[in-house]
Amino acid sequence: MSGSQIENIVFHVANLLRYPVLIATLFALLLVLAELGSFAVELYRRRSRSPLVLQGNARAARAALDQGNVERAERALDFVASSASMPLAVRELIASARSGPQASSSMAKCLADFDLRSMRRLERTRVLVRFGPALGLMGTLIPLSPALSGLASGNTAQLTSNLRVAFSVTVLGLLIGATAFAISLVRDRLYAQDLSDLEVIATFLDPAAQIDLSSVKMIEHEKVLEGELV
């Protein structure tokens, strides 16, 4: 196989990716718009967050557990749950608080599981942070070849059409990446706050529990810096 044949194969393969890249860019745009709407809902849920209310409800939940009323304890803590995944974590903490001597380690496991669920939630936008610009670059470079062919043959209509596609995909790719990056940064802080709230709840539910996830938070913060800011 000669060099020109290899170049032709690469050229045709790249051209075959033109429409899949355009479709993937539109799909990524829909995803980031959906994440933006979900992010707005998360911010709305946190509008009335108060540390004093959190502590008061945690005390009420502890009093309800002392009386053996698990449902009342869950209702008290569901009221301060500021994210969709927090009610599950609250129920796990309540169950752990009633597990006796193993409460401390069981609560630490619940908090670690919540942190992992938060990381999975963040992965959606973190993928789009890199995926959006990558699609934008591919969508820019692929139409350049037929655009240059149109320029060489004097076909200005072909040149204009391909350049319009190239620049439009570039803009969409950058928009996807920038929006996903902003959502990821703010969500990282919000989920860290949720984890801190759960630690407070765990402390009230079992004052003897020694729970320290500072090392987990530091590792998570380093992952954000390495994965998104580099």
Describe this structure in words.
- This protein is an all-alpha fold and 230 residues long.
- It is built from nine helices and no strands.
- Helix 2 (18-45) packs antiparallel against helix 6 (103-141).
- It starts with a helix and ends with a helix.
- Mean pLDDT is 82; it is low at 212-226.
Secondary structure: elements and pairs:
Blueprint: H1 3-16, H2 18-45, H3 51-66, H4 70-78, H5 86-97, H6 103-141, H7 144-153, H8 156-205, H9 214-229
Helix pairs in contact: 2-6, 2-8, 3-4, 3-8, 4-5, 5-6, 5-8, 6-8, 6-9, 7-8, 8-9
In a nutshell, what does this entry contain?
By secondary structure, this protein is mostly helical.
Q: Characteristics of this structure?
A:
about 230 residues; mainly alpha; 9 helices; elongated
Largest sheet: none
| Shape by Cα distribution | elongated
> How many structural domains can be distinguished in the coordinates?
1
As residue ranges, the low-confidence spans are 212-226
Radius of gyration: 25 Å
- Helix segment count? 9
Q: What pattern of helices and strands is seen along the backbone?
A: HHHHHHHHH
Number of E-state strands: 0
Structural class: mainly alpha
> What is the arithmetic mean of pLDDT?
82
Gap from first CA to last CA? 41 Å
Give the proportion of residues in helices. Answer: over 70%
Portion of residues in beta strands equals under 5%
